[in-house]
């Protein structure tokens, strides 16, 4: 197992790819069942990430930060001292 991982990471031909990038119908048929599942997974994860993003933006818009104490403004006379 470790030798396979080592070979795959350091330049050996991976077993799930087609050598020389040639087109083979058998390769396409073998991957066919995974296309729909991969597309559904992509849509689900993308929608989750987008919904979290918009929820966060909406939550920050509603916050008025009134609980945060603000320092007093410094006048020009005091800042030049």
Automatic annotation (TrEMBL):
One GO biological process term is: mitochondrial respiratory chain complex IV assembly
Q: Which residues form the signal peptide?
A: none
* Membrane topology designation: Single-pass membrane protein
Q: Which spans are transmembrane here?
A: 39-57
From which domain of life does this come? Eukaryota
Chief localization class? mitochondrion
Localization per record:
Mitochondrion membrane
Q: Which InterPro entries match?
A: Coa3, Coa3_CC
Q: Which Pfam families match?
A: Coa3_cc (PF09813)
- Please report the stretch or stretches of sequence annotated as the Cytochrome c oxidase assembly factor 3 mitochondrial coiled-coil domain: 27-66
Q: Which UniProt keywords apply?
A: Membrane, Mitochondrion, Mitochondrion inner membrane, Transmembrane, Transmembrane helix
Keyword Transmembrane in the entry? The reply is yes
Any one annotated GO CC term: mitochondrial inner membrane
**Record's keyword annotation contains Mitochondrion:** yes
How is this protein organized at the quaternary level? Component of 250-400 kDa complexes called cytochrome oxidase assembly intermediates or COA complexes.
Task of the protein: Required for assembly of cytochrome c oxidase (complex IV).
Q: Which PANTHER family match?
A: CYTOCHROME C OXIDASE ASSEMBLY FACTOR 3 HOMOLOG, MITOCHONDRIAL, CYTOCHROME C OXIDASE ASSEMBLY FACTOR 3, MITOCHONDRIAL
Similarity annotation: Belongs to the COA3 family.
The entry's protein name is: Cytochrome c oxidase assembly factor 3
Question: Which species is this UniProt entry from?
Answer: Smittium megazygosporum
């Amino acid at each position: 197992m470790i030798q396979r991982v080592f070979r795959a990471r350091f330049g050996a031909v991976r077993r799930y790819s087609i050598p020389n990038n040639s087109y083979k119908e058998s390769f396409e048929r073998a991957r066919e069942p995974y296309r729909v599942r991969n597309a559904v997974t992509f849509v689900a994860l993308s929608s989750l990430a987008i919904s979290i993003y918009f929820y966060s933006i909406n939550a920050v818009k509603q916050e008025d930060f009134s609980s945060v104490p603000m320092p007093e403004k410094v006048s020009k006379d005091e800042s030049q001292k």
